[in-house]
Amino acid sequence: MPTISALYDIKSLIERYANIDVVGRPATVRGVTEYHSNCPWCGGTDRFVTRPETGQFSCAIRSSGCGRTGDGIDFLKEYMNMTHAEAMETLGIEQSADFVPAKPSTQSQIAKECPPPARWQETGKNLVERAQSALWSSAGKDMLTILRSRNLSDGIIKKKKYGYMPLQSNGRFYEDELENWGLTPEQTNKDKVRIPNGILIPWFEGNTLWRLALKRPDQPKGKDYGQVVGSGEGLYGVDAIQYDFPAMMVESEFCQSAVEQESGDLVACVATGSTTRARLSRWVAELHLASFTLQSFDEDEGGDAGAEYWESALKRCQRWSPWIAKDPNDLLMQKYFEWVKEGFSIREWVEGGIMLAKGI
Which pLDDT score is estimated for 52? Predict the structure, then answer.
């Protein structure tokens, strides 16, 4: 039975917490209205379905889906790591007096705390090297131009190991066997690893590869960002965190790179990938090492909600959004000319946040 909530239907709930927009015209399938969007878990485009009338979501309608299904409670428990009681409270559902929730399973949380398997990392690292070479070749000149247009220096592009995934000689996406990545069809609900063309962004913790993200600048919003199947729940730039040194948390890898490029000597910047990701105990523990954390998600509804979580999870956390720009990379791209003329920069913005946070 679907979860019925007086506060949310399934579409608005997932838009609120997953920070995705379920856009486009609804379809009617067997008399039920459904909406299609990118999947909050696997990032697959147009394969995630929400059905407000039944209170259900699904990413299992196609062979390429990740297999996630459920209702509002399932979503909050699986995606937000809530307990059953917390999910009920969030949805505004009164728990019956005779209900005793089953002991929560820790299997999914333990899995998230671990990086991808060694085979996945080995294959992924080889792919990173190939993608780096492609970016700096004639084939990758357009993608390199896009990165440079964001005012990212060649030095930071190389340091962060950005790469380019081209289409294959047959005009199709890169494909590889699941076993070469240490994966199985049962784990992934897929028959192969497929990676579209775009900018490949590796997430490292030391020599451990946690995630392979992909930015596709030629695609519309909502379909321009994803991750390679099997990726873990990393924290981008985590190696920069030091004991008793300021930290900053942003949403995207481009923003993290912009802050590191301009102010890496002032603050250890990390990125979560979205406003609801990286909520693992290992990353919370890492951030507790910092003297304080500037919480710098975008100043919008999703960013504010994400900031609330981190302000409660971290002992010393100061909200410091880029209130004169969409995000830190926009500051670096100097879109706000009236501020640039007055000398306002990422560095000055970071310095202002540090001064404010020292008063915590």
Answer: 84
Identify which of 171, 169, 191 has the alpha carbon closest to the alpha carbon of residue 181: 191
Q: Is the CATH number of domain 10-104 3.90.580.10?
A: yes
- In this predicted structure, what is the pLDDT of residue 111? 56
Rounded alpha-carbon distances, angstroms, from residue 345 to 107, 189, 252, 337 = 45, 46, 18, 11
What would the two tokens of residue 101 be?
Answer: 């929730």
Residue 107's pLDDT is what? 44
Closest residue by Cα to residue 125 from 228, 44, 237, 197: 228
Q: Domain 238-357 is of which CATH architecture?
A: 3-Layer(aba) Sandwich (3.40)
- The answer to whether residue 158 scores a pLDDT higher than 50 is yes
What is the fold, at CATH topology level, of the domain defined by 118-227? DNA primase DNAg catalytic core, N-terminal domain (3.90.980)
* Dist CA 29 CA 331 (whole Å): 45
Lowest average pLDDT, out of 158-167, 221-230, 254-263, goes to 221-230
